[in-house]
What does this fold into?
Amino acid sequence: MTQAKRDAAAHTAHARGEPGRRPESIVGRLLRAQEEERRRIAREVHDDIGGRITEMALVIRRVAGRAALSNKSLAEDLEKLLNKVEEAAKSVRRMSHQLHSPVLKIAGVVAGLESLCREFETSTGVSVRFTASGAFADVSGETALCVYRIAQEALTNIAKHSAAAEAGIRLERLAGRVQITINDSGVGFAPDFAQREGLGLVSMEERARLLHGEFHVQSQPGRGVCIQAILPVSPPDPSSPA
It folds into this structure.
């Protein structure tokens, strides 16, 4: 069955309310649209803004070199300006990678998570211990992206809410599935707080649900948070029964 026929069948089943079909939720559609927008913005940030900042740095470096021969004070000011511009370039690259990770796409889920952890440590000072066990070469792009986004959102929560000094991410290969576990040593929360405030848990759970996976959260005040998702290596055919 072609993709067009699958889409048509899924749409027809949804419209008729046929049993055995799982229509995509509004949140699911929003998440898919969000990923498309992330990719578009990441390209523009990297290619346009990043390129312009690089050009600025080259011009400043050239002018600073000339000024060094006749105006030491001006050369020093230009050097300070150049440092600021280079810091901005690093921020733009980091923002682009957060929106759409090239490492994840090119090198796979393990390398993508390793890169995510290192960038998180650099920007927050929170130590992250990452471990991976098993083979992940056959993990689909959709599953890899889901794993990456859940880890990314969980780390964002840790930075914003946990007051933790360290965290851990463990990636495991199960029979036909991938399991990711993220935990921290922070302040934790009561279950009703998680439901009331969200903490990004809705989007994480919906991402797992879209791939027919499982999503679990455990936490108590003062005992940190443990988030776990179990996902199929490849998402099921969208036209197959749920």
Notes: The first strand starts at residue 127 and ends at 133. Strands lie at 127-133, 166-174, 177-184, 214-219, 225-232. The longest helix spans residues 26-67. The chain has eight helices and five strands.
